[in-house]
TrEMBL record:
Name used for this protein in its record: Cytosine/adenosine deaminase-related metal-dependent hydrolase
Gene3D superfamilies listed in its UniProt record: Metal-dependent hydrolases, Urease, subunit C, domain 1
Keyword Hydrolase: yes
An example molecular function term from Gene Ontology annotations: hydrolase activity
InterPro entries: Amidohydro-rel, Metal-dep_hydrolase_composite, Metal_Hydrolase, MTA/SAH_deaminase
Taxonomic source organism: Catenuloplanes nepalensis
Alphabetical keyword list: Hydrolase
Length: 473
């Protein structure tokens, strides 16, 4: 990385959103970072003479955001499926694209997504990497992640086989031995979706996860896909645990929620994707009622943004919209909104840390924690003034362009609004351009365009009994 990396950094006089219980919001406050750790939080802190001073006045310092489910490998096709439903996604992506992917394409997508995360203040990303058809693909995924000094979780998956098949291979075990070395910035999970097989062949992969001592992440409660029956089979075989992240869950029943809650599982909500594609309604209201740990995720930037500001905003809007719809259906009105901006910010930070088992190290600003920090400050953006409600400002007003400074494990990756990884970005741009060109060259033009503009249902105009003669136009 082409940047200075001072061992001590002090942020001066910012509004600090700690996400810690009891002292969530501190004003005119300094945060001192030494050797990758937060060593002091307070006013007028003494700092080592060598410390880099960052003026945080007029800005908001908060923990780095944590995205608990992103298919980073798909980022090279950013925006191609902007008009897709989930059915479109399965049809176009899996029929036309995925079989043509090489390890280089996974590398390109992962590198671009990793840089995007750093730029947007997402210091930890769970790479839900289900395109790993061989370990050559997995090596490419990790090669890209280790090119960028962010915190990543490789959630290893392979859509082309049952997880009981690929997780049993020698090459998979060799990969884990070679690449997952306990290094702090790269951890590991197993990613798969439940089959419809009543014999529960997935039992074998739960055994592998236990043996490797790693967590599991699974799409669950996706309309038309994974459902209550899959979750019930997991329960019947005694594998539900607090080491599982269930992704989406909007289409699961209350019974499944109760099983998840009773076993300490957590849920990753991808509201933008769920609203656009139709996995099931963003379930944060239901999760709150069941007391289930909640985190946020961006899913796939083929369809929606890869940006946690949008994830937070979409989630707050969807949650409140449902509250209003339910109230109106009962002939009532919502006087006080239930979900608060600070709650959503918690989902995006400490909730994510809890989901991946790292809440003792990251997810909040407290002495002793690793310094994954984001300063949101942009004096050039009129929308960054005034800051009256800091958590609300982050969720409802700010955007990725307002991310001023990012630290991961105490290391500067963005400063003064500039990503300090420009050589990596140039490389990612070349790799992605090559990936898109090759994919497009391998398809006929009609197939490419069909994916770009899926057919659109007719809209039947509602018959209007009123006819006025004099309306303009
Ligand atoms: Zn997903």
């Amino acid at each position: 990385m082409t940047t200075e990396n001072p061992t001590a950094i002090v942020f001066r006089r910012g509004i600090v959103l700690t996400m810690e219980p009891g002292r969530p919001e501190l004003h005119d406050t300094d945060v001192l970072v030494e050797n990758g750790r937060i060593t002091a939080v307070g006013t007028g802190l003494a700092a080592p003479r060598s410390a880099l001073e960052i003026d945080a006045a007029g800005g908001i310092l908060m923990p780095g955001m944590i995205d608990t489910h992103r298919h980073m490998w798909q980022t090279a096709q950013r925006g191609y499926g902007s008009d897709w439903s989930l059915t479109n996604y399965f049809y176009f992506y899996y029929i036309n694209h995925v079989h043509a992917f090489r390890p280089e394409d996974v590398y390109a997508g992962n590198l671009l997504a990793a840089l995007e995360s750093m730029n947007a203040g997402v210091t930890t990303t769970v790479d839900w990497s289900h395109g790993l058809r061989t370990t050559d693909y997995a090596d490419a995924a990790v090669d890209a992640l280790t090119r960028v000094p962010g915190r990543f979780v490789l959630a290893y998956g392979n859509y082309a086989q049952g997880p009981w098949e690929w997780s049993a291979t020698r090459e998979f075990r060799d990969f884990v031995d070679r690449r997952i070395t306990g290094e702090d910035l790269l951890s590991f999970q197993i990613a798969f979706d439940m089959s419809a097989d009543p014999a529960f062949p997935e039992k074998a992969v739960f055994d592998v996860a236990r043996e490797l001592d790693v967590r599991i992440t699974t799409h669950a409660g996706v309309w038309g896909g994974s459902d209550d029956a899959g979750l019930r089979r997991m329960a019947d075989h005694g594998v539900l645990s607090d080491r599982i992240t269930y992704v989406h869950t909007g289409s699961l029943s209350d019974d499944s929620y109760q099983r998840i809650a009773a076993t300490g599982g957590n849920v990753s909500v991808a509201t933008e994707s769920e609203s656009a594609a139709g996995q099931g309604y963003s379930p944060t209201r239901r999760l709150r009622r069941h007391g289930i740990t909640t985190s946020l995720s961006t899913d796939s930037s083929v369809l929606v943004s890869g940006d946690m500001f949008h994830a937070m905003r979409a989630t707050l809007g969807a949650d409140r919209a449902l509250g209003h719809i339910e109230a109106h259906a009962a002939g009532e009105t919502v006087t006080d909104n239930e979900l608060r901006a600070a709650d959503v910010l918690r989902y995006a930070t400490l909730g994510g840390a809890e989901a991946i088992g790292l809440a003792d190290r990251i997810g909040s600003i407290a002495v002793g924690k690793r310094a994954d920090l984001v300063l949101i400050k942009n004096d050039r953006n009129p929308a960054m003034f005034p800051i009256i409600h800091p958590a609300g400002h982050v969720v409802q007003q700010a955007n990725a362009g307002d991310v001023h400074t990012v630290l991961v494990d105490g290391r500067l990756v963005k400063k003064d609004g500039v990503l300090l990884l420009d050589t990596r970005l140039a490389e990612a741009r070349r790799a992605v351009r090559d990936s898109v060109d090759r994919l497009r060259d391998g398809m006929d033009e009609a197939a490419w365009n069909a994916g770009l503009t899926p057919s659109r249902p007719d809209i039947a105009l509602i018959d209007n009994p009123y006819h006025y003669g004099n309306h303009a136009g």
